[in-house]
Write a structure and sequence with these properties.
This protein is of the alpha/beta class. It is built from 9 helices and 11 strands. It has a 6-stranded parallel β-sheet, sandwiched between helices. α4 links the parallel β4 and β5.
């Protein structure tokens, strides 16, 4: 369990709060808007209405006590940038800030953000790749070159073992697990037989995955 500071309780911030709550973390939410604070209350441990660009207000929160500080302010980049910079000045261990454009990400990283999340861009990339290929059921980008795809088993692979197919040797791809009826099994071996009622979790370079699964 970690202590999390969440600054910005709009739509994105609220979704982060919900996920953090499900993971069992202690969350302090901050926003200037009372209505947004009320909306996020069911998912956080504490909440305060306040201006995160005010150094004294932030100092009073005890920034050094939080393991991660999320800055999810939207619609006012100046406030997001000032908040990010102040958090780092006040001893924040890890600052994760939201960006809405590439140029914002650059400024945030230069001014104290340890990491930047770019929800609109990341979702657009995921959706474009997920819904333009017939064989992809899910997609996680690892970096610019590598990804994990949840894919259907090619017809030619049905009834064969992972070891027999030599996927790693031929394509440079690792089969991390299989899913059946929504349940994931990662305890696979070279002897695991593939069937047409499962999907596979495959890790590799994007180009290799495209070639192997005709994505």
């Amino acid at each position: 369990m970690k202590n999390i500071l969440l600054i910005g309780a709009g739509h994105f911030g609220r979704h982060i709060a919900m996920q953090l709550s499900q993971l069992g973390h202690q969350v302090m939410a901050v926003d200037t808007d009372e209505e947004r604070i009320n909306d996020v209350l069911p998912f956080v441990t504490k909440a305060q209405i306040g201006d995160s660009t005010n150094a004294e207000f932030l100092r009073a929160l005890g920034i050094g006590n939080f393991d991660v500080c999320f800055v999810t302010i939207s619609g006012n980049f100046q406030n997001s940038l000032e908040t990010t910079s102040l958090l780092k000045e006040l001893g924040a261990k890890c600052v994760v800030s939201r960006a809405e454009r590439d140029v914002q990400a650059k400024f945030l990283l230069r001014n104290g953000a340890d990491n930047v999340v770019y929800p609109e861009k990341q979702l657009a990339i995921w959706a474009a790749k997920r819904y333009t290929a017939d064989h992809i059921f899910d997609y996680i980008e690892i970096d610019k070159q590598h990804a994990i795809f949840e894919v259907e088993v090619p017809k030619a692979w049905v009834g064969k073992s992972i070891g027999m197919l030599e996927v790693r040797k031929k394509f440079g791809i690792n089969i991390l697990g299989i899913k059946r009826l929504g349940k994931t099994d990662v305890s696979i071996t070279p002897d695991t037989i593939l069937s047409d009622d499962i999907t596979m979790l495959a890790l590799g370079e994007y180009n290799a995955l495209q070639k192997c699964f005709r994505i």
